[in-house]
Amino acid sequence: MAVDNIKLALIKDKRVLFFVLQMILEDKKEQNNKQAWWQPAMLMFAKLSGWIAAPVLIGVFFGKWLDRKYGTEPWLFLASAGVAFLISMVGLVIEAKKEMGKIEKESKKDKKAK
Question: CA dihedral in degrees (83, 87, 88, 93; nearest 10)?
């Protein structure tokens, strides 16, 4: 009888241990699926900053190189900087529209949930 009681206690302990481990794993999965509150904002900041800096820097260096190559200082530099600025603005508008769409979808989900 004492052996049977010990076996029952071990089985219960195993069930409890299994349950606790299962809860811990489910909690870890939930934490992995959730983003930190600041990640979407930093991602948007990086995208928009990239659209501001990358085309302008490329245009400036490309324009200087063209001016040196063809001796047209400062006209090709100014033209490439202007084109790069326009590309930058178009990219910013496209990214901003995408982000606004995401925000609108989230707000609609929040309204439906209430």
Answer: 140
State how far the alpha carbon of 22 is from the alpha carbons of 14, 16, 27, 31, 97, in Å. Answer: 12, 10, 9, 14, 42
- How far apart are the C-alpha atoms of 1 and 86, rounded to whole Å? 86
Query: For the residues of 60-82, what is the DSSP string, one character each?
Result: HHHHHHHHHHHT-TTHHHHHHHH
For the segment 40-66, what is each residue's pLDDT rounded down to a tens digit? Answer: 888 889 999 999 999 999 999 999 999
Alpha helices in the chain (DSSP H): 2-33, 39-70, 75-113
The CA R_g of the chain, rounded to the nearest whole Å, is 29
For 7-33, write each residue's pLDDT tens digit. 445 555 666 656 666 776 776 666 666
pTM of the model: 0.64
